[in-house]
């Protein structure tokens, strides 16, 4: 099967959306399919074409940027060419270009599957409101042309202003989660380096972005320190120079300065380093504040490494804890409730632990790729039946 995947940003850009798309593309390629990713050349130093882990990546030059969006005049021509060459299309939304690609797929009788990751919420400003409206209009046009839409959870689909309009097309497929099992000696060395004093470690694993709720955790810290004076935050992920988040970074500078002795930034870690990071934490915190966060893959990664999670009570985001029992769910933007949940988990951590096998039974990249493969095959079979029926009707 020849599968075309489209999304605005792809590796080396890091976000939950790009990690999902990369894992899915690699998983499908590992199952013997030819997978091509059409994306932006968001950094001019990136090669126009590359092969990454068996996946062909085609990057379109960017003429200029609007907030996090990009303008790519050559995109339409490349999309026509690639849609013709592939059997099925998988579009990752939100994406302004989605409607054009979906319409091309419909015109060429190629099954179109949308993967909807998140609602779009940009920072305040007239330009950003215009961009949000334009992207949402394009995504709705794409939904009309799509044969199917996949969502992480039924919980998020039912609450999303976008997905709730198209529930008859929605297929729930758990997201791809895959993290190495770290060696005991490697974990011990990582702990000795980053936590030589044996502090209580509270983790965050994300790029710095306004919807991630970093300030909620920092506001909860004083209450946590009353109970656990040795508590310390380890932050994995890009925290400075994040595209489109410069204002948020400046906003947090006073808090970072206040708590400079209580927070350590580890930067971007590779997958094996992340497995060691999760393994030394006492708890992971996902204090997201709006529906741009729809699940939180890092929660499951942490659980696979034996670490409980505390998540905001957002549709989809609350599901990993609810599905596994491995953590707590707290009200959105409630630093007091977050602090209390952290204290409960630190006091009774063993009560929240589950065997890795239980988590693996629910989430894996292989399981996700298999579900997508089945969906693609069903749509292609339905297409063939329609063509055969039309052919018989013409000759009857």
Shape: globular
* Proportion of residues in helical segments: 40-55%
- How many helices does DSSP assign? 14
pLDDT averaged residue by residue: 92
SS strand fraction: 15-25%
The major sheet is characterized as:
8 strands, mixed
Counting helices, strands and paired strands, the structural category is alpha/beta
One letter per element, helices H and strands E, the order comes to EHEEEEEHEHEHEHEHEHEHEHEHEHEHHH
Rg over C-alpha atoms, rounded to the nearest angstrom: 22 Å
Task: Give the oligomeric state.
Answer: single chain
CA distance, first residue to last residue: 32 Å
Give the low-pLDDT segments.
Answer: none
Keywords:
14 helices, alpha/beta, 396 residues, 16 strands, six-stranded parallel beta sheet
Question: How would you explain this protein's 3D organization?
Answer:
With 396 residues, this protein is an alpha/beta fold. It contains 14 helices and 16 strands. Helix content is 43%, strand content 19%. The longest helix has 30 residues. The protein has an eight-stranded mixed β-sheet with strand order 3-4-2-1-7-8-9-10, sandwiched between helices.
Describe the structure concisely for a colleague.
By secondary structure, the chain is an alpha/beta fold.
